[in-house]
Amino acid sequence: MFGRELRWRSITLLYVYGAPVLTVCRLMGVSERAVRRWYALFKSTGDVMPRRQSKQHEFPAEVLAHVSRYVAEHPCFYVEELRQTVNEQFPGTPSSASTILRMLHFGLKLSRRVLERRAREAIPMEVETFKCKLKGFYSFPQQVVFVDETAKKSEKCVEQTWLNPWPLPRSIVILENARIHLYAELEAVVHACGAMLLFLPPYCPQLNPIEVIFGRLKQWIVRHANLAFREQPEQVLEVALCLCLKEDGGGVNLFRHCGYGESGLNESVFSVNEQ
Questions:
Q1: What are the two backbone dihedrals, phi and then psi, of residue 212, each rounded to the nearest 5 degrees?
Q2: Sorted alphabetically, which Pfam families does this protein's record hold (predicted)?
């Protein structure tokens, strides 16, 4: 049985970020039937677990007004960013991801179609801007380093230096365009190495090899090692990652799939019509 957190992440991708159902399935490693069932549960009960009727919360009017303004002004918002603004403006107000989603759906009556339309109207320019910025520096896939936070050991930052000056390999750092990544210290550290720092356009997991490989890992684990993963997660992940990358040509095909070709960017992947 899939856990609550994975279900909420799936609904967030589907409802707030407008990701197609099949894309959510690939990223989360679950079936289309499961995603549609969870979304139906959320719309009817406000929860993603069966046989649980969520309380119909009465959200404070001032909080709803703030969220409504923020969503209107930032059509490509991230849930984490919205949570942070609620915490800053209204300390003590519940602001978990599930609460934010309920607020959008039940409090503001914003359908997935409305949120998706607003975001899609803003995304093409974001994608085009990102492509133009990267195109001026990109020559081959070994240049780009995608970073996402899961867990970390700070001593690794001291033991090893990963970045090189541009245009050498590992000289273009690409992060998600989330508010938590936008701080001067990070930019200073990257630029001190002579490397470039760019941010992905919002709601574009297809441009991020990390998102794609995570989906493949989850699918492999569900299909081949679902029970073993609970007992030995690190060993299963090591095997799964090795096999998935081997099938993908050591990651070369993965980068090509996301638009980062051997001699330049694949324009079709970055096409506005594809977003």
A1: -65, -45
A2: DDE_3 (PF13358), HTH_23 (PF13384)
